Amino acid sequence: MKPWPFFVITLDTEPDNEWARPREPRTGNARFVPRFHELCVRHGLKVTYLMTLEMAQDDFLRDYLRPRLAAGECEVGAHLHPWNTPPLLPVCEDDYRHHPYPFEYPAEVQRAKLATLVDTIERQYGVRPRAYKAGRWGLDGVHAGLLAEFGFTVDTSVCPGVNWGPSKGHPAGTGGPNYNRAPAMPYRLSADDVCRPGDLPLWEIPPTIVFYSPLGRYVPGVKALYRRFRKVRRAFDRFHLGSEWLRPYPHMTAERLQRVVAIARRSGTPVLNLTFHSSECMPGGSPYNKTEASIEDLYRRLEAFFAFLRRNDVEGVTLSEAARRVAAAG
Q: How many C-alpha atoms does 239 have within 13 Å on its Cβ side?
């Protein structure tokens, strides 16, 4: 077995239930962050909070996280939701409804929206964000170049082996990014093609996604069948043909999370990246955890999984720390 990689937690820190396309975003889930943060700290893990504008403006969250940030327990990064980050210059008839991808806005509008978000985080937290994730995973070369311009050093938007093309943003657009060709290992991004290594001063550390066989990653249409049909999912899971994210979905037991870790370790990855949303820590804050009972189940599974990591002396780092370690290793 390969040595243990660094362990990163990237939390999309965003308003309540963005899946419902709210026109007046609420930040009630900020009050549920302390429980999650304290669980992570107890197990020696660090959290990278990738913040939207609304969450960066939330004073409760700022007052809670600033001392934890100063203590080195976490990192505050950026997560651009362009449909409601000023300047509000719509690209379709209803940006709130359609949630266009960042790259569907003109480059100058992207730049202005990034400036709003970065300036707000810097004002609220006293740090300039270095870690980033695009809203809806929507990264292209132009957007990556803008991130480098703003001084970001690490991104975690590219999902290796995943094609978001069927998920429309702008209703007349071409859909989401296709990351089928993207490397599963960390790499420096290119301003020409984010699916291949380049020379931007910006590292890509993707979310941890494992594929149980080449069938799950490379055969056209297989992943769509897996997502759509329960019987297909069951067959793929039984014969280990599909894929799995290091993400605490309700069906992801601690044992399944451990299995993802084992497969990722065998591949030689230097970083494990667990990702989900702050709103998933709040009852009704997401489609995944709608009740208090489901939240308690989430914490039982995370407690068991984090205890497993702790027993194995896994080192928890922030996303920026992971990028520095990877860069130093060459």
A: 10
Residue 54 phi, psi dihedral angles, 5° rounding: -65, -40
CA dist 322 and 270 (Å) reads 9
3-state secondary structure of 242: coil
Question: Which carries the bigger pLDDT value, residue 220 or residue 16?
Answer: 16
CA distances 319 to 49, 199, 233, 302, Å, are: 10, 19, 31, 19
pLDDT value for 113: 98
Q: What is the pLDDT of residues 146-164, one digit of tens each?
A: 999 999 999 999 999 999 9
- Please answer whether residues 4 and 266 qualify as being in contact, where contact means their C-beta atoms are separated by less than 8 angstroms: no
What does the block give as tokens for 240? 């280990």
Which residue did the predictor score with more confidence, 236 or 82?
Answer: 82
* Cβ atoms 121, 157 nearer than 8 A: no
The CA distance from 117 to 44, in Å, is 29
Q: What is the pLDDT of residue 40?
A: 98
Which residue's structure tokens are 């759509």? 228
Q: What pLDDT score was predicted for residue 307?
A: 98
Crossing angle of the two packed helices 107-125 and 59-70, in degrees rounded to 10: 70
For 39-78, how does the pLDDT look when each residue is reduced to its tens digit (9 = 90+)? 999 999 999 999 999 999 999 999 999 999 999 999 999 9
- DSSP state at residue 212: S
Question: How many whole angstroms separate alpha carbon 283 and alpha carbon 289?
Answer: 6
188's enclosing H/E stretch is strand 187-188
The C-alpha atoms of residue 189 and residue 205 are separated, in whole angstroms, by 10
- Looking at the chain, the number of H-run helices and the number of E-run strands are 12, 10
Which residues are CB-neighbours of 122 under 8 A, at least 6 positions away? Answer: 128, 129
Q: How many CA atoms lie within 13 A of 236 on its CB side?
A: 23
